[in-house]
Amino acid sequence: MGHRRAVRPPPASFIALILIASSPGGPFGAKLATVQQGDVVAGAAMQVLLASVGSLTFAPTVNAVLTAADIGTKVSLDVGALVRTVALLQLVPFAIGLLIRRYAEPTAQSWHPTTAAVSNITFLIVLAGMLPGSWQDVVALFGSLALLAGFLLAVFAFAAGTLLATGPTTRRTTLGGVASVRNAGPALAAIGLAFADQPAVLGALAAILLSGLAAALPVATLLSRRQ
């Protein structure tokens, strides 16, 4: 029993890691494609596709893993609500962006700095919203196996996405970057419904998201210098 505690993260961070790993298609994937100077259109399309599929598979995947790990908690989410959220927040903006780029490219280029700034700010707002009341739990995870696991998850997803993608190297690495980013929406919904917004789980979720970005951002930056 002691051996299991030594090699597995504490329950809160373990739960957060499972939630994050089961939720692909994070909106920050498109930002990574921009940082990399990669195939932004393909990256955004893959991000929306992963988020759409993830909204359907999230709850069954999480429940299967938590049951196998004998956590004793079930996650029950409104799949229809998740699909509508993905459609509203990711699919619709993506479609509008494609139309503007297709029929009004100068307008799209002029809007780019503003939309990029807005995407950065909204991501930081979401991340900051997870920290009040749980920042001590975030600090407590520094140097833990949970952060290492989140870092390695992002690295593995980046590598797997790149290897499984087709086309030019730029497109493949762009899709690898998208694969490495997780979608916080379903995970936050699960924490609210199944874990009563426990600060420890919220803090672990924020910390693991940050550790994943710490892996993906430097890779995207290095790739941009090779373009």
In short:
With 227 residues, this protein is an all-alpha fold. It has helices at residues 2-7, 11-21, 28-36, 40-68, 79-103, 105-129, 135-140, 145-164, 169-180, 184-194, 199-224. It starts with a helix and ends with a helix.
Considering the chains and any ligands shown, give keywords for the structure.
227 residues; mainly alpha; 79% helix
Radius of gyration, Cα only, in angstroms? 18 Å
Residue share in helices?
over 70%
The average pLDDT is 79
Tell me, briefly, the overall form.
globular
Largest sheet: none
Number of strands: 0
Amino- and carboxy-terminal Cα gap: 50 Å
The secondary-structure element order is HHHHHHHHHHH
Structural class: mainly alpha
> Helical element count?
11
Report the β-strand fraction as a percent range.
Answer: under 5%
Low-confidence stretches: 1-7
How would you portray this structure in words?
With 227 residues, the protein is mainly α. Helix content is 79%, strand content 0%. The protein contains eleven helices and no strands. Helix 3 (28-36) packs antiparallel against helix 9 (169-180), helix 4 packs antiparallel against helix 5 and helix 4 (40-68) runs parallel beside helix 9 (169-180). The chain is globular and about 55 Å long. The chain starts with a helix and ends with a helix. Mean pLDDT is 79; it is low at 1-7.
